[in-house]
Write a structure and sequence with these properties.
Layout (H helix, E strand, L loop, with lengths): L2 H4 L3 H14 L2 H6 L2 H7 L7 E5 L7 H8 L4 E6 L2 H13 L5 E5 L12 E7 L9 H11 E10 L9 H7 L3 E7 L2 E6 L5
Parallel strand pairs: 1-2, 1-4, 2-3, 4-5
Antiparallel strand pairs: 5-7, 6-7
This protein binds S-adenosylmethionine.
């Protein structure tokens, strides 16, 4: 079954509900200020950004406010339940610089070299987002100077992910800042 079809499944959305309650909880807001993580990812006003697996929108609303009117954010997820939730939050906040899109991030449908930044926050590793397919797609949609920001949860369990990103040969490491791994898109080796 394709990820997009899976995202419509009632069972999957039901299973995601408790996770969603945790992801969007006040306790999380209190423990993990989303703005700190976004700053650590180098998010700046005017940038064009893809957020993969936006979930309940924990990062979506602060990210959209940070990039401002001159910036643009595509918040993508496969789960129809999360997409509905984030769409409501975006319209309640009256944000015009966000597009909430229900789509498989392995095939974003975005133009090549169209983004300044991709956010992979709490989404890898995930069975529906295998790195061998996700990283080439992120490489394709990033501008030559574009950057990839990765926040892993829980970091201890996923210690091997940064090495896998480097092994792909598609990104070079910039720095780890406040738990966020930052990478620059690498030109494809001919
Ligand atoms: C653990 S949640 C993280 C949500 C959010 N980034 C956060 O930190 O609150 C992972 C999210 O990735 C989404 N997801 C999983 N596979 C996906 C895919 N192939 N394309 C887009 N989103 C996907 C899930 O639906 C889920 O909302």
């Amino acid at each position: 079954m394709k990820a997009e079809d899976l995202g419509n499944s009632k069972l999957l959305n039901l299973l995601f509900k408790p996770a969603g309650a945790l992801m969007g909880s006040r306790l999380r807001q209190w423990l993990m200020n989303p703005l700190k993580t976004l700053h650590a990812a180098g998010l700046q006003a005017g940038q064009t950004v893809l957020e993969v697996g936006c979930g309940t929108g924990f990062y979506t609303i602060p990210a959209a406010k940070l990039i401002g009117d001159q910036g643009y954010l595509v918040a993508m997820d496969v789960s129809s339940g999360f997409i509905a939730k984030v769409s409501r939050k975006v319209s309640m906040a009256d944000l015009k610089n966000v597009r909430v899109e229900k789509r498989d991030a392995l095939e974003t449908g975005l133009d090549p070299a169209s983004l300044d930044k991709v956010l992979l926050f709490g989404v890898i590793p995930f069975p529906l987002l295998p790195l061998n397919r996700l990283l080439p797609e992120m490489h394709r949609v990033l501008k030559p100077e574009g950057t990839l920001a990765v926040w892993l949860w829980p970091p201890v369990v996923h210690f091997w992910v940064p090495k896998s990103i480097l092994r792909s040969g598609l990104f070079t490491y910039i720095e780890k800042h406040k738990g966020v791994y930052n990478y620059k898109r690498r030109e494809a080796v001919k």
